[in-house]
Amino acid sequence: MKVVAFERPKQGSGASRRLRNAGKTPGIIYGGETAPQLVEFDHNALWHALKKEAFHASVLDMEVAGKTAKVLVRDVQYHPYKQQVLHIDFQRVSAKEKLTLKVPLHFKGAEESEAVKLEGCMVNHIVNEVEVTCLPADLPEFIEVDLSKVVKGGTIHLSHITFPKGVVPSAHGGEDAVIVTISAPRGGKDEEAEAKPAEAAAPAADDAKAAEGKKG
To answer: CA 149 to CA 22: how far, in whole Å?
Structure first.
């Protein structure tokens, strides 16, 4: 994905404010052996790009003054209530150095599973993105999770996901995070079975009270 930026010679809050008033967004590109570079973007083009999932989870081709560099989005500052990007940071990446980045999960096949199609189970997405480590060339835009074989009461963990070649999850502390849970439908047989013992206990309690009253 290509992004076009323009050199920004001035810095400071006053210069940044004038840029925003002119429909521009200030930014910076840092990292690598090159000094940080001040840049600016057309705000509307940047705003629409930020709405795309791939913009946040891909290595981007950043063009500045005719030169192109590989970068990642590292930080975006938004106005608290206006639809406005106040500032954006990009980090240069090297083709030979591994990077760590959060990648979105795309879920498929839930409607094909017996648990959902025949038993009416609910699919609960606990995690919608995972942090991975890989070389820039191996970075996927998303990772697919197949739900076609899930069962009622089942759980999908991080270890159940198939990652692309060269991509490994960055599990902190060796934690096997829960990605998806499959729960029985509300008002289903399981809940009815749990409710019946409670309903049966109520008349029994009333009978016991009535018996005590007669003794008195």
So the answer is: 53
* Count of Cβ atoms closer than 10 Å to residue 209 Cβ: 8
Do 114 and 82 share a domain, yes or no?
no
Tens of pLDDT along 80-119? 999 999 999 999 999 999 999 999 999 999 999 999 988 9
**Same domain, yes or no, for 10 and 78?**
yes
Looking at residue 191, its amino acid is E
Q: Number of structural domains, the chain?
A: 2
Distance separating alpha carbons of residues 171 and 194, to the nearest angstrom: 37
- Asked, for residue 135, whether it belongs to a domain, the answer is yes
* DSSP result, 11-77: -SHHHHHHHHHTTEEEEEEE-TTSPPEEEEEEHHHHHHHHTSHHHHSS-EEEEETTEEEEEEEEEEE
**C-beta atoms surrounding 97 within 10 Å:** 10
Same domain, 24 and 41: yes
